[in-house]
Every structure is written in structure tokens, then in C-alpha cells.
Amino acid sequence: MKRQFTETEWDVIKSMSNEWRQLDMFYRHWALKESFLKAIGVGIGFNLQRIEFNVSPLQLEIGKVYKETKMLLDGEKEDEWTFEETRLDDSHHVAVALGKQEGSVQKDSDVHSMEPNQLQFTLLTFEDLVASGIPVAPEDSAYWDNFCLKQEGPVKQSSHSR
């Protein structure tokens, strides 16, 4: 992962007081980088060292949304990008990359609290996700049965196979 973060980002990650906090900061940086890649519509083949995040504040409180983190692209500050960050709980960061909206003036403060009962996220099951799906081909139960009979791991082939 050394190639995915800048030296400055690694310095921030390693500056955390213990291994768990370092891992937490690592995931925060990763969420920020991933949010930017998704926003611009490119894959992970993008050189992630081109983007550098100056995270602020260092600690995020659960239930608050922060907009203070800044990004540098190729070493230059990108003021037209806003990154909203929050913590779902002690183990999960969320980052959303927002490009500059045409004609908009940002009046919000850098931090705002969610209402305690305001629904922030909805947990979906696999069934929820596929409920409105439409099959592209008729069901083939023989194919499924055959698939289930396959071994889970690859079988090592003998060099003396005939």
C-alpha cells in the first residue's frame, strides 16, 4: 500500500498513538481516495499518489458530518472539491466527494450534526437489492445443481497428467 499514499499521508497515519488508530486513519484516507475516484468515474488504475488529503480534524465524532478535509491534486490545492466525512460507528468511515456545484454558494459551516432520529443510512439485504430484478434468461436448475457440485478450490494438476 506504500504506493497508494503520499509521504505526507503516511506521516499522518503513522503519527497516530497506537496501531488501531493508525489503521483507523488508514481507512479514513482510503475512503477519501475511493470517494474521489468514484466521483470522477475512474478505476483504481488511477495513480493514487496524485491525490493527497489533508484531513481535518484528526478525530471525527460519530453523528457529525465534517467538510474540512482538503485535497491536493498533483500538489495543488483543489478548492472546487468538498469532501463530506462522517463516522457510522467506531469502525466505519464514510466519505463523499462533491464537485463544485455551478452557481452555488456554500453557506454551510464546516461541521453540522445529524438530528438524533434522522435516518442517515438504510441497511439493505441481498433480497432487498434483487427484489426488483428481472431475469435475463429462464432459470436452469440443472446448471445450478452442476455448479453446486464443483469443488471450491482449484485442484492441483499432476505434471504427469495424460
Number of helical segments? 4
Question: What CATH architecture label applies?
Answer: Alpha-Beta Complex
Query: Could you say which overall geometry the principal axes of the C-alpha atoms support?
Result: extended
CATH superfamily: 4'-phosphopantetheinyl transferase domain
Instruction: Predict the CATH topology.
Output: Ribosomal Protein L22, Chain A
Name the beta content range: 15-25%
Count every beta strand, where a strand is a DSSP E run of 2 or more residues.
Answer: 7
- Report the top-level CATH class: Alpha Beta
The whole-number mean of residue pLDDT values reads 84
- The computed structural class is alpha+beta
Order of helices and strands: HHEEEEEEEHH
Work out the radius of gyration: 22 Å
Q: Helicity level, as a percent range?
A: 25-40%
Distance between the termini: 43 Å
Give the total of domains: 1
* Most strands sheet: 3 strands, antiparallel
Spatial strand arrangement across the major sheet: 1-3-4
The unreliable regions are 103-107
Describe this structure in words.
By secondary structure, the protein is α+β, with helices and mostly antiparallel strands. The protein has a single domain, classed as Ribosomal Protein L22, Chain A. Helices cover 27% and strands 19% of the residues. The protein is built from four helices and seven strands, in the order ααβββββββαα. The chain has helices at 7-14, 19-40, 126-130, 141-149; strands at 51-54, 64-66, 70-73, 76-77, 82-89, 92-98, 111-113. The strands form three sheets. A three-stranded antiparallel beta sheet has the order 1-3-4, covered by helices on one side. Strands 2-7 form a two-stranded antiparallel sheet. The longest helix has 22 residues, at 19-40. The relative contact order is 0.11.
